[in-house]
Amino acid sequence: MKTVFLVDDSATILLSISGILAKAGYATEKAASGEEALRKLQGGMKIDLLITDLNMPGMNGIDLIKEVRKLPAYKFVPILFLTTESQQSRKMEAKAAGASGWIVKPATADELLNTIKLVVR
Amino acid sequence: MDEITSVYIQESREQLAEMESCLLGLEQNPDDPDNINAIFRAAHTIKGGAGVIECHFIEAFTHRVENVLDALRNGALTVTPTLTTLLLGCCDHMVSLIEVLAAGEAGPAGELQAQGEVLSAQVQGFLDGMAGGEPAAASELTVADREPAVEVENAGGIVLNDSWHVSVRFGENVMRGGMDPLSFIYYLASLGEILNIATITDAIPVAAEMDPESCYLGFEIQLQTRSSKADIERVFDFVRDECELRILPPNSRLSEYLKHIQELPEDSMRLGEILVRCGALTQAELELGLSQQKLALGDDGTSAPPLGEILVDHKVVNPEVVEAAVVKQAQVSDKKAREARLVRVQADKLDQLIDLVGELVIAGASANLLAQKSRQTDLVEATSVLSRLVENIRDAALQLRMVQIGDTFNRFQRVVRDVSKELGKEIELHISGAETELDKTVVEKIGDPLMHLVRNSLDHGIEPTALRLERGKPACGRVSLNAYHDSGSIVIEVADDGGGLNKEKIAAKAVERGLIQPGEILSEHEVVNLIFEPGFSTVDKVSNLSGRGVGMDVVRRNIQALRGTVDVASVDGQGATFTIRLPLTLAIIDGFLVGVNKAAYVIPLDTVVECIELKNLQSDRNFMNLRGEALPFIRLRELFEIPGNVPSRESIVVVQFAGQRAGIVVDQLMGEFQTVIKPLGAMFRHLRGIGGSTILGSGDVALILDVAALVQSVTQSELQRFSERGQSAPAMLSNNPFSQH
């Protein structure tokens, strides 16, 4: 079973995405902030995909991505970020930080799962 | 209501509270980017959540608000008092909308709907008035949040019998971005059937120069699918910026160019032009091609520039943006870091834990008692270590339920702002001791009395501006809220720098209402505290908490219900200070244990004044002479109809509550006792005179007396008997205020 690690400061988003993923047969791990996520990863959690929000208080998604990419174990793990801002600059910034791709909120369950299928084999 | 919705509602309420406090901060610091970002983020989270739970009325309204905030964030709009007021109005409206959702209604009705439309129109007005605003910021929801699929009709169309040709050269960083090149191929296969695939390995350098983390591969793929070009393109969306991707529709004419591509993999610019002319190119590809063309011209067309330069040229990675992000990160205060370490726990679970810890304390006490009886030194030692640990656990468990009073205080920023505008006064609120902690159950109940006191200070305490200036005070009045710990209780002060209470007026009114006798001499302190007496105000309704100078006794009653006290001190011309003193927790009580026959009762220790022997009763009236003062008393034996003979020696515990004294007659005095309060079950709710129960170390149940109710009823029944003088006094039992009804 593939494990997807969700990071979002919004409990609503965490709950909804993990619900969709659970139905589709993914295991999920959750963190409510960048700091918490990083701590868990530094602890060596095994994941197949990281999905993070960009806009979070404290450590934002872009900083999280940068930090995660510094950890050898997660150098090649796919990272998707959640965004509603279709502005290219945020996407490019996140990509430059090491993100693999993005999911545009609000996404339907199909859009979400299709995107995940693209990055997690 | 499903789980997600209820989580959303709770989250949104928190976000809105945060948003409101940030909006209030906006007036003081209009240029603080952190603050504006926090407001934007709150709105953004609420909108995002609304989209998830498909609550469109919240989503649509919040989106409009978000547009204004975005403009504010970008500097396209500036903070003005009008805008702040509008945004606060919007914030309130969102609170109402969340309540609509919480009530399970399909959408806002009537007045609320109209209010929303008015606000939306005002918001739109701001956006329309914005000079040179970014059109994207003000775009409608569907446009802003969903990228339209770019689909270009090409000359040949989709011929079902034929196949697409996909040519891709991955950028070196694809794997570093966490993407496996193979996953694209697998995904393409899910769109249709891959007829043929060729791996292009030409770019792989000699082993010594090869970086194993870089990707040097390319693929030529024959794909048969019913999907559109946009669908195929979307597969490569995430790597589009670093990849050379060409998709040729099933068209023989284009297949001629295929050879050309393979021969000239680097010359994408010319290829782009050709493909556009052919009508096979999408707009996104065209833009990429154009930007590369511009760049190539700038560089004298010599070499292909690295990705980074392209990005900068596109102005998508802007140095100032990066710098601002770094500065912002540094400014993120410790508070945020602390928030990150928080764990959310349901209050019920904590209550349950505290309940269990209470049982543990009781069980521990009982074990202690048995150990001491057994006279085994080892056992006594072990149990004493255990009981010390249990006490630590109890304290730690109670600590869990402690919350900072700051959130409660911050609510008043808004109240002060609104009320001062309403009254036409200039008033600032000063908060200190916001980090002072007290029990959540106390915090929840202190809001209303505090609101009353604050409004009272705003309305009656602070003088009109003209009068203030006349008195040589600063025009801006000041109301301050302060909290601190003081020997096991928490003290909350509401102070103003207004004119102070008018003592003559209070004394006159007290005489008029019969609270004091004319000519009675009272200290200043006693006079000002008369405002808390029942009957001092003409209107006496619990619901009236608006602070119109009425119902101060209601405030005191509410605070006393929390086992607290309230007191006022006033200095003429300098202001008044209301001091509320509350226990840190409602779960534990210092009690005084008394016995009647075989039953034990606990009297809250802070109400006990003294204990005396009951003797020399001159009458059968329930009154005695205590050093020249009449002390009404009540016999627990009669009150609770306890059987058994009256012992030869009875004691009387003198209690005081709200300035009134009364005696409680008991058989035995058993000393001080700290205990955990257990609320009474639903069956006993209607009992008056009993506030709760506890279990003694011996396993016996002891009832905790509600001294407030006892004192009130004892004085009332005596008053009644006093007024009925001459008539045969009704027996205590028939007039028993505690009998079940």
Description:
The complex is a heterodimer of chains A (121) and B (741). Chain A has 121 residues and is α/β, with parallel strands linked by helices. Helices cover 44% and strands 20% of the residues of chain A. Chain A has five helices and five strands. Chain A has a five-stranded parallel β-sheet, with helices on both faces. The longest helix of chain A is centred in the first third of the chain and has 13 residues, at 11-23. Chain B is built from 24 helices and 21 strands. The model of chain B is unreliable at 131-161, 252-286, 296-338, 538-550 and 726-741 (pLDDT under 50). In chain B, helix 1 (3-28) crosses helix 17 (406-423), helix 3 (56-74) packs parallel to helix 5 and helix 10 runs antiparallel to helix 11 (283-298). Chain B is an alpha+beta fold and 741 residues long. In chain B, strand 17 and strand 18 (660-666) form a beta hairpin. The longest helix of chain B is centred in the middle third of the chain and has 28 residues, at 347-374. Chain B has five domains: 2-128, Four Helix Bundle (Hemerythrin (Met), subunit A) (Up-down Bundle); 159-305, Alpha-Beta Plaits (2-Layer Sandwich); 347-401, Orthogonal Bundle (Helix Hairpins); 404-583, Histidine kinase-like ATPase, C-terminal domain (Heat Shock Protein 90), CATH 3.30.565; 588-740, SH3 type barrels. Chain B has a five-stranded mixed β-sheet with strand order 6-8-9-11-10, with helices on one face. A five-stranded mixed β-sheet of chain B has the order 19-12-13-21-20. Classes of the chains: A alpha/beta (121), B alpha+beta (741). At the A-B interface, helix 1, helix 2, helix 3, helix 4 and strand 5 of A face helix 1, helix 2, helix 7, helix 13 and helix 14 of B.
